[in-house]
Structure prediction request, 273 residues.
Amino acid sequence: MAAECVAMSSPHDHNRIAWDARVRARGRFTQPARDEDFRNPLAAVDAAGWLGPSIAGQRLLCLASGGGRQSALYAAAGAQVTVVDISAEMLALDRQVAAERGLDVRAVEASMDSLSALATGSFDIVIQPVSTCYVPNVLDVYRQVARILISGGLYVSQHKQPVSLQTSAEPSARGYEIVEPYYHRGPLPSVVGSSHREGGTLEFLHRWEELLGGMCRAGFSIEDVIEPMHADEQAEIGSFGHRSRYVAPYIRIKARRTGERPKGPAVKVWIPQ
Ligand SMILES: C[S@@+](CC[C@H](N)C(=O)[O-])C[C@H]1O[C@@H](n2cnc3c(N)ncnc32)[C@H](O)[C@@H]1O
Prediction:
């Protein structure tokens, strides 16, 4: 009966339930900020220095960032922080950490592709950790972010690389293999025991023309891109560090909201149904 209910729910409902459960199980990405992170909170969350020397007074949205890490550290660095997440349990951690540390954090339960609770042009900076994989259409997220950012505002986001979502969790005798098509439709098959995927969630593969082209078409200009380094020469075969030697798991994008109105694609883009 429970399995039938899950199969019939939307990806959003499914992922809300899955992330609530991950919090209760103290899973990966549900750990609040540690004491040592508060020594230099901005450096702890902005190693690349993309946000400059100070974010004091900036209106900053932590999008799909519940868990009591990002919201608390950006607030400790002086920003006026709002955190949005679909998981009430993740947001409970944000509220708990903010209360413990005397920080002012506004927590909003919403989906990243439906931000009507947030006013147009009400943020200077939007930060989004890896999370666009949980919605079917990344363009809907970008359009929402473009709406709530001021012109000239910064959007820093991290995403799973498509090839990482295509590649097997474990190596065969031939190494890691591409097992999913690039033009995958619908949620990816579930995996067990992968450190590149979150068990129990529904994840979607977004192609480069959606991740990068979609951002440009939503009204952003991309200023910088990095691939956070996770490759480890000493790592055990099959581990996160070992697989990352062959397939980079993530991309981090620094983009700026331009003054131009978002426009449609100049070329025909295949959108999964
Ligand atoms: C990998 S975690 C990122 C946050 C985490 N604190 C970290 O350490 O990076 C992904 C987050 O996306 C949230 N999420 C999943 N689907 C979402 C949606 N449709 N809208 C908003 N948040 C969503 C999850 O609840 C989870 O908090």
Notes: Residues 12, 15, 19, 29, 64-67, 69-70, 85-87, 90, 111-112, 129-131, 134-135 surround S-adenosylmethionine (CB under 6 Å). The domain at 2-257 is CATH 3.40.50.150 (Rossmann fold).
